[in-house]
Amino acid sequence: MILRKLLGNWLSETIGEKLEIVVEKVKKMLNDADVDYELLEHEPVYTSDQAARVRGVKLRSGVKALVLKTKLGQFILALVRADKRSDLKAIAKAHGTKKVKLASPAEVLEVTGCEIGSVPPFGHLKTLKTYMDKEILKEGEINFNIGSHAKSVKMKAGDLLNVIDAVVL
Asked: pTM, whole model, 2 decimals?
């Protein structure tokens, strides 16, 4: 019992350290690219609705970063507006495969170093091919989590496309 408790504390600390590393990488990347952005620190959010409420923005301005897995076990990243569902068939077709599915929580953590709901839209940080829904570009300002459920960024949608290497669908 004591070992399980110690192991649980160690695991939580390790995950927390990994998430802070992701946050710092995102900030450095945006600073290096000379992108104007606002870093928000807020209560932890786990859904797009919660995130919009705590940020004081419309749901449609949020960007979800979904880790997908191909039939061959390859991982890719799909970016979609928070008020929309991802078109898995279109993403699979663009990627040249027949089918993709959402990665499991354990796979997301392993591949990105982030928990589901906190994955930033920067697949190139983890060499993930990235597909972006063109609807995101219709928003002037977008926002998304950056490796933490309690830290997010607001920035211009066009700047996101300039920073990432994404296929726009």
From this structure: 0.85
**CA contacts within 13 A on the Cβ side of 83:** 11
Topology (CATH) of 2-168:
YbaK protein (3.90.960)
End-to-end CA distance of the chain: 50
3-state secondary structure 31-57: HHCCCCEEEEECCCCCCHHHHHHHHCC
Whether the per-residue pLDDT at 119 is higher than 70: the answer is yes
Contact between residue 154 and residue 37 where contact means Cβ atoms under 8 Å apart: yes
3-class secondary-structure state, position 40:
strand
pLDDT at 18: 55
CA distance 131 to 109: 19
Domain ranges of the chain: 2-168
